[in-house]
Amino acid sequence: MIYRPPRGLGFGIGLLLTIWAIALGVAVSIAAVSIGIEFEGFLVGLAAIFFFLLAIVFGYWSLACLNTAYIVDRNGLAIQWGPIRQLVPLGQIERLVPGASVKKPRIKGLGWWGHHVGQGLIRGIGPTLFYSTHRTRRELLYVVTPGQAYAICVHEQVLFAREIQNRQAMGAVREIARGPVRNALAGQAFWLDRRAQALVFLAAALCAGLYGYMFWVYPGLDPTVNVEFPSLGGVVRAAERSELLHIPYLAAGILVLDIAAALLVHLWQRLLAYLILLGGIFTQALLIAGAVVAVN
Fold first, then answer.
1. Cβ(209)–Cβ(248) under 8 Å?
2. pTM, whole model, 2 decimals?
C-alpha cells in the first residue's frame, strides 16, 4: 500500500524558490557581462554562480518533495524521499502517535511550509527523523521504534494504523534492516568522502583565485604585451593582452576534466581519484605561477 502525502504546497514553494534563484542568477550574469573583465565583474560572476547552484539545490529538494511517499508491506514501512528510502521493519514499530497530541516540533534541517526534512527531539517520543509535508502539527504522525522515531504526514491516520496492524499480524516475508537505502547516484561513496570533497574544493578555490587575479590586473595591462618563449632562446613576441585570458580559461577546462575523471575513477579506486585531484591542484598552481610571470 502506498500513501502519498499532500505535496502541492511544498513543491509549489520549492518551485518558486528555484525560479527566483534562476532569475537572480540570470540578472547577475547580465550585470557581470556588462561590467566586463574587471575585479568587480569577477565578484559579480561568483554571485551568479552562487545563485545558479542555489537553484539546483532548491530544484533537487522540490523534486524530492514531489517524490515523497510512504510504502507499507508485510516486511516494513519504507519512507521515500527523493533518492533516499528509509526502511523501518514492521516488527520494530511500537506505537503510532498522532501529532495533535504532541507540542509543535522544532526541526533542524531543510524545509519550508509544506516540506520538512530533518531531525528533532520530541518530548515523550525521543529523537525523530522528519520526512513530512505537514502544514500543521495535526497532520503529523509519529512512528515510534526503539531508539528512533519517524515523523510522517498522513491524512487518514486511522486507516494507516489499521494497515500497519494488519501487516504486522500477517508476519514478515523476509527480514529487513532499519536504516536508509540510497539509489545508485545518491549512494556513490564520493558524497561521503570528505577528503575527496576537500581536494575538489581546493582545486576550485585555486581556479577561482586565478580568475580573480587575472580580472584584477587585466584592466591595468597595456593593450599589447610581450610574451617570452624561454624554450626558443628567449624569443619575445608582441601579443594582445586578451591572449592572457587563455590561462584562466584553460584552468577552468582542466578543473572540469579533473573533477569528472575523479568522480568516475572514485567508483572503484579511491586512491587513484585522490591522485587525479592532487594532479589537478598542482596544475592549477602552475597556471597561477604562469599567470603571475606573464603579467610581470
1. no
2. 0.85
